Amino acid sequence: MLAQLYKWAAIVFAVLAVAAVVTAILFHSAARDSRVRADAEHERANVLAQQVIRADQIIREERERAERMTVIAGQYERDKADAQAGYERDLADLRAGNLKLRQRWAATATDAVSAAGRSAAELDAAAADREASAARIVRAARDADAQIRGLQAVVKADREATP
Fold this sequence. Notes:
Blueprint lengths: L1 H95 L12 H6 L5 H42 L2
C-alpha cells in the first residue's frame, strides 16, 4: 500500500511538474510577445516622430521659399513699374526734344518729300506715332529685362534651396 501511495504521489508530482513547465513556457511566451509588441510600438513612435520632424522641416523650407519668391515678385513688380515710368519719361523727352531718335526712326528725306502734300496735323501725328512706337519698344525691352531678372532670381533661389 505504501508503494502504491508513492506511485500515485510520483504521478501527481510528475503531472504538477509538467503543468508548471507548461505554465512557465506560456508565461515566457506571453512576456516575449509583450516585449515584441512594446518594441514595435516604440519603433512606430520613433518613425512617427521622425515624420513629424521632416514635415516641420518641409513646411519651414516651403515658407522660406515662399518668402524668397515674394521678395523676387516684389522686385519684379518694382522693375515693371520702373519700366513704365521709363516709358513715360522717354515719351515725354521725345516730345520735348530732349531725346532724339536714330535716323531710321526719325522722319527720312523721302518722308519730307511726300510730306509736301500732307497737312501739319498729319505730320505731327506721324511724328507722335513714331515717338510713341519708339517709347513702346524701349518699354518692351525694359519689361523683358525685368522679367529676365525675375526669372533668373527664381532659378538662383531654387538652386540655393536645393541641396
